[in-house]
């Protein structure tokens, strides 16, 4: 969470401020040591957070149903992107054990920007789908306009682990564990050595890789 807060609090460099040296030592997410001092103080920037998840192998594990429904009740919720094979939907809520969704796939010719755009809103009434029919690959979305919104969201996510009979879909950590790779998300131009190193890090067919049956 510290990385997210740093990205949302960081402002653009001040006019006339010295740019970050190309050879400066960078921390996670592209921030060099002492970068805070070279940036203008900026308010919290609104955050749209999309979290891709897989809630099972072929089907959604029923143990995740409670936490999935709880996400819709969060005030920061933007809904869920998901569906089933050959049918993608935007889920906006639930009733009982069914999810309420909109189908955004209304195709029509392009129009001039000056024309009115009401026809580009969803043209189909909301539909329902049982949670058990949902493909396990989804993405949940949240919007935190202020830092207080983000802190409140963090507290609600941590409370999900206390729901009886439900499994948390994801967990939060304040600091990135030291044993994980730390890609620079603000500097996406990888040279060959970086690409090879990352590929090697995530290579599951390493000769030293072994799955233990407990």
Automatic annotation (TrEMBL):
Give the EC number: 3.4.22.-
Please give the GO cellular component terms listed in this UniProt entry: autophagosome; cytoplasmic vesicle; cytosol; endoplasmic reticulum; mitochondrion
InterPro entries recorded = ATG4_LIR, Papain-like_cys_pep_sf, Peptidase_C54, Peptidase_C54_cat
Q: Which UniProt keywords apply?
A: Autophagy, Cytoplasm, Cytoplasmic vesicle, Endoplasmic reticulum, Hydrolase, Mitochondrion, Protease, Protein transport, Thiol protease, Transport, Ubl conjugation pathway
Q: Where is the Peptidase C54 catalytic domain?
A: 39-156
Extract one GO molecular function annotation from the record: protein-phosphatidylethanolamide deconjugating activity
Descriptive protein name:
Cysteine protease
Q: Which reaction does it catalyse?
A: [protein]-C-terminal L-amino acid-glycyl-phosphatidylserine + H2O = [protein]-C-terminal L-amino acid-glycine + a 1,2-diacyl-sn-glycero-3-phospho-L-serine; [protein]-C-terminal L-amino acid-glycyl-phosphatidylethanolamide + H2O = [protein]-C-terminal L-amino acid-glycine + a 1,2-diacyl-sn-glycero-3-phosphoethanolamine
Physiological role: Cysteine protease that plays a key role in autophagy by mediating both proteolytic activation and delipidation of ATG8 family proteins.
Primary location: cytoplasm
User: Which GO BP annotation is one of this protein's?
Assistant: autophagosome assembly
What family is it from?
A: Belongs to the peptidase C54 family.
Report the locations given in the UniProt record.
Cytoplasm, Cytosol; Cytoplasmic vesicle, Autophagosome; Endoplasmic reticulum; Mitochondrion
């Amino acid at each position: 969470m510290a990385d997210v807060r740093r990205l949302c609090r960081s402002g653009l460099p001040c006019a006339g401020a010295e740019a970050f040296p190309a050879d400066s030592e960078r921390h996670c997410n592209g921030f060099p040591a002492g970068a805070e001092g070279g940036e203008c103080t900026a308010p919290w920037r609104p955050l749209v957070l999309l979290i891709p998840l897989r809630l099972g192998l072929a089907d959604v594990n029923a143990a995740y149903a409670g936490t999935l429904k709880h996400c819709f009740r969060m005030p920061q919720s933007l809904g869920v992107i998901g569906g089933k094979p050959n049918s993608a939907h935007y889920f906006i809520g639930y009733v009982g054990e069914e999810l309420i969704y909109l189908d955004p796939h209304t195709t029509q010719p392009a129009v001039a920007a000056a024309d009115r755009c009401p026809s580009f809103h969803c043209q189909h009434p909301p539909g329902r789908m049982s949670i058990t029919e949902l493909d396990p690959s989804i993405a949940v979305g949240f919007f935190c306009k202020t830092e207080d919104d983000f802190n409140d969201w963090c507290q609600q996510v941590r409370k999900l682990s206390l729901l009886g009979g439900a499994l948390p879909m994801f967990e939060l950590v304040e600091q990135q564990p030291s044993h994980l790779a730390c890609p620079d998300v603000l500097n996406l131009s990888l040279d060959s050595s970086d690409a090879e190193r990352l590929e090697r890090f995530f290579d599951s067919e390493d000769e030293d890789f072994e799955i233990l049956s407990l």
